[in-house]
């Protein structure tokens, strides 16, 4: 285990065959844990992060010095109570917080992989993370949970390892990335590729990185995480530190300034090539296709208890796409609960302080745990 | 737990798989789970009620009986329960058909519009009846398809739906309804409970 830079790393010795056909060996999975594993090793929850998340779920992120991405939901006495549960989260493969990704050195060239990194999938991500169970000696997780791309990993994990989790919580996600979602991801990738600093992905040898392209990608994506109503209420047509319009192209409106800020802080913590690889993995995700078009078959082998959560104002992963998973589970008589949470905070609702969501999550986990 | 739920619970044997349609805050579900070892699922339209069920550790799907029953396969439950909501649907006949498709048997309860207090209210006051089981005004009631115990009997007959058991509830009294006492029960019961199959 390597604890350099506060990053814990598991070097996976077992070769992993990727969906693209390549096999990787001795690759690192960076992870973090919260709470403690009990004697029976039956209180572990594997949390999966979304596109731009990392293993630092809660508390202060030691690298960015900001709050962890799921600080509202995970921590002592919170929905995922770290006094009770042992929470594990790994940086996804392809990411840039220590797990095997495009910024890692390619031993054959001595420089970063860049776009020579293999294209990875959600399936590859969960297969890589599965090694953490062996590492901790956990036979069966109490739960797996995640929102957005984290939810896709949850679905893939239980379909790959049907006996390895008692409860399964996919949040604000889909079983198959829609054309609209692929379109938004493509917009982000093209923004990065259009930045002359990107250099076909080979920017690590230069001093410059494709900051502008990555910032634009983040700005576009950020809009999709919010709702029209939420944006209107927060920003409306409010002007940014000025009395009147300036008749120019500076950020006159607060929403412009806000997006520019979101873009600028993002480039400090995220790698442009990782953004390409992870969005690609999301676009390739189609769980039904893996089972010849029958989504129910993905879950036929599991006895796990599912709880699916969507949000009213999420137009990126709308309720209907979440309900399609519920329908696939009901059609095989699986144990599945579902609730759509009222919120005007858009897709980001799962990351924010949405009390109905947090109480539903807590109640489901705690009740399922006592019935254990 | 209310008397109606006691009666419903008595109709369900141990260790069965049951769907409670319009399960509300999950009181009946919880009773069946704890006392009959029922493998119980719920369908509920109200978000706050779904939350209450989750807080009780019950498996509930937020949804609408008129739209969301179709996702369940044929005969996937031994019993499907519908308590006092049939009259609130736009198309009660369709819902009954769906209950009988999804469940091997269905237990349906209805507030009886033939109850003497209901009749008396309309007769004397000349306004839409308001009783314990029908507490709303005409302009805000969810109940758009009221029927009497007799109506339900005739409906079941006309659709070849088998009535295994029908019970009348009046306060704490529970009695069996049959062809010979139908008119009397339809007068004195404020609630009818039917165990049906197709």
Task: Report on the architecture of this protein.
The complex is a heterodimer of chains A (372) and B (198). In chain A, 33% of the residues lie in helices and 16% in strands. Chain A has helices at residues 122-129, 131-136, 149-160, 179-193, 211-225, 228-234, 254-269, 272-284, 287-290, 319-330, 355-370, and strands at residues 8-12, 16-17, 23-24, 27-34, 44-48, 74-75, 80-81, 86-90, 141-147, 165-171, 305-311, 335-341. In chain A, the strands form 3 sheets. Chain A has an 8-stranded mixed β-sheet with strand order 1-4-8-5-9-10-11-12, sandwiched between helices. The two termini of chain A are 32 Å apart. The relative contact order of chain A is 0.14. Chain B has 198 residues and is of the alpha/beta class. Helices cover 35% and strands 26% of the residues of chain B. Chain B contains 8 helices and 8 strands, in the order αβαβαβαβαβααββαβ. In chain B, strands 3-2-1-4-5-8-6-7 form an 8-stranded mixed β-sheet, with helices on both faces. In chain B, β1 (17-21), α2 (27-36) and β2 form a beta-alpha-beta unit. Chain B is globular, with a radius of gyration of 16 Å. Chain B starts with a helix and ends with a strand. Chain A binds chain B through residues 305, 307, 326-327, 330-331, 333, 335-342, 356, 359-360, 363-364, 367-368, 370-371, and chain B through 17, 41, 47, 50-51, 54-63, 71-73, 76.
Salient structural properties:
heterodimer, A: 372 residues, alpha/beta, Rossmann fold, Rna Polymerase Sigma Factor, Chain: A, eight-stranded mixed sheet, two-stranded antiparallel sheet, 11 helices, 16% strand, B: alpha/beta, 8 helices, 35% helix, globular
């Amino acid at each position: 285990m390597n604890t350099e830079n506060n990053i814990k790393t598991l070097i996976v010795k077992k070769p992993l065959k990727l969906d693209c056909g390549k096999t990787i060996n001795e690759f690192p999975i960076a992870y973090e844990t919260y709470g403690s594993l009990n004697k029976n090793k039956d209180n572990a929850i594997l949390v999966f992060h979304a596109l731009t998340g990392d293993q630092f779920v809660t508390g202060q992120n030691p690298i960015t010095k900001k709050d962890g991405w799921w600080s509202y939901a995970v921590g002592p006495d919170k929905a995922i109570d770290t006094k009770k549960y042992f929470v594990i989260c790994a940086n996804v493969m392809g990411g840039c917080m220590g797990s095997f990704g495009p910024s890692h050195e390619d031993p054959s060239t001595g420089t970063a992989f860049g776009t020579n990194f293999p294209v990875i999938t959600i399936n590859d991500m969960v297969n890589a993370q599965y090694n953490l169970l062996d590492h901790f000696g956990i036979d069966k997780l109490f739960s797996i949970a995640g929102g957005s791309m984290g939810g896709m990993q949850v679905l893939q994990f239980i379909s790959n390892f049907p006996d390895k989790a008692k409860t399964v919580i996919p949040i604000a996600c889909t079983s198959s990335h829609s054309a609209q979602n692929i379109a938004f991801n493509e917009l982000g990738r093209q923004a990065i590729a259009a930045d002359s600093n990107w250099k076909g992905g080979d920017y690590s040898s230069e001093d410059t990185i494709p900051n502008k392209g990555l910032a634009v990608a983040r700005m576009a994506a950020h809009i999709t995480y919010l709702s029209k109503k939420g944006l209107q209420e927060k920003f409306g047509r409010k002007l940014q530190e000025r009395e009147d319009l300036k008749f120019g192209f500076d950020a006159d409106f607060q929403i412009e300034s806000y997006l520019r800020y979101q873009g600028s802080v993002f480039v400090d913590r995220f790698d442009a090539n990782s953004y390409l690889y992870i969005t690609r993995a999301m676009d390739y995700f189609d769980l039904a296709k893996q089972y010849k078009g029958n989504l129910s078959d993905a879950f036929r082998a599991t006895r796990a208890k599912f709880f699916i959560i969507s949000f009213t104002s999420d137009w990126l992963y709308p309720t209907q796409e979440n309900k399609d998973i519920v329908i696939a589970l009901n059609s095989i008589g699986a144990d599945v609960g579902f609730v759509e949470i009222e919120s005007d905070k858009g897709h980001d609702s799962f990351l924010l302080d949405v009390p109905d969501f947090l109480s539903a999550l807590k109640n489901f986990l705690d009740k399922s745990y006592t019935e254990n | 737990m209310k008397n109606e739920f006691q009666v419903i619970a008595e109709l369900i044997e141990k260790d069965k798989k049951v769907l409670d349609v319009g399960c509300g805050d999950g009181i009946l579900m919880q009773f069946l789970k704890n006392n009959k070892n029922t493998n119980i699922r719920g369908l509920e339209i109200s978000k706050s009620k779904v939350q209450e069920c989750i807080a009780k550790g019950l498996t509930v799907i937020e949804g609408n009986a008129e739209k969301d029953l179709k996702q369940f396969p044929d005969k996937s439950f031994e019993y499907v329960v519908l308590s006092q909501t049939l009259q609130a649907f736009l198309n009660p006949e369709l819902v009954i058909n769906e209950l009988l498709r999804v469940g091997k048997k269905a237990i349906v309860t209805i507030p009886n519009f033939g109850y003497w207090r209901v009749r008396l209210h309309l007769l004397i006051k000349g306004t839409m009846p308001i009783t314990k089981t029908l507490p709303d005004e005409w302009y805000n009631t969810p109940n758009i398809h009221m029927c009497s115990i007799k109506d339900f009997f005739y409906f079941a007959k006309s659709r070849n739906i088998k009535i295994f058991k029908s019970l009348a509830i009046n306060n704490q009294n529970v009695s069996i309804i049959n062809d010979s006492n139908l008119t009397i029960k339809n007068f004195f019961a404020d609630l009818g409970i039917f165990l049906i199959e197709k």
